[in-house]
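# step 3/5: fold
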Amino acid sequence: MLVLVAPGQGAQTPGFLTPWLELPGLADRLTAWSEVVGLDLITYGTKADADEIRDTAVAQPLLVAAALAAAEALGATPDLLAGHSVGEFATAALAGVLTPEQALTLVRERAQAMAKAAAVTETGMTAVLGGVEAEVLAAIDKHGLTPANVNGAGQIVAGGTLEQLAAFKADAPARARLIALSVAGAFHTEHMAPAVEHLRTAAEGIAPADPRVKLLSNADGQVVTDGALLMRRLIDQVSNPVRWDRCMATMADLGVTRMIELLPGGTLTGLAKRGLRGVQTVALKTPDDLDAARELTK
């Protein structure tokens, strides 16, 4: 069983789109999608520095467009789809729930609303690697933080105010390593509540279709077969935790044997190597990875 996965914010690196522009038609597609999101995606994906593409309003449309473009270049029909955080919008489009243009329009609104919400209070996110999960979660709760991403494979991301995160760092869980993430705010926490309402309003005119391919939800890791339900979950996801651990558990239950991570790949295949032992993985980082990925589709 083959699963295609799409990464979330933080996966982008300066210049990651550059080699992909050599593929026929890809630059034209990105140019058209740039009109949809109101950003020059090619410039941001080739010439912008790390700070510019760290901007939430830029990073989210850039990541979704990159994942969709890479999926088109790959040309594979998966058995299962799953996206992490904003990557779920890419997989919703690949499953036929939304058109690429609808997905990108919603992501533009999502990104701008989340950037605005992040500016209200100084918030951030810290990755917690290792430790005993129950102890890590207890420490996160003790300091008033939210386990914003429960990623599995010994990785949990805490989100909250900078003051809360500083106190958490000073009172870290035993045998855990803490890494402050370079993100603009505490995504998937209560601090993003205003963005939820904005996205709900933006989605009112869109009639989602039911998925054509099995599609996992970040909310609980379960397969979603109803397009309207998925749309509600995509909206609520902005201020709710991402349960990638449960997505990987469902992949294991369904018998996934192969995983291809769409551009810019690496994060989710890294988690799979620790949390889905024995699953063959390919991360699409450059077009040179397409041959190995296509081998996995056979």
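# step 4/5: annotate
Residues 112 and 238 are 12 Å apart (CA to CA).
# step 5/5: archive (pending)
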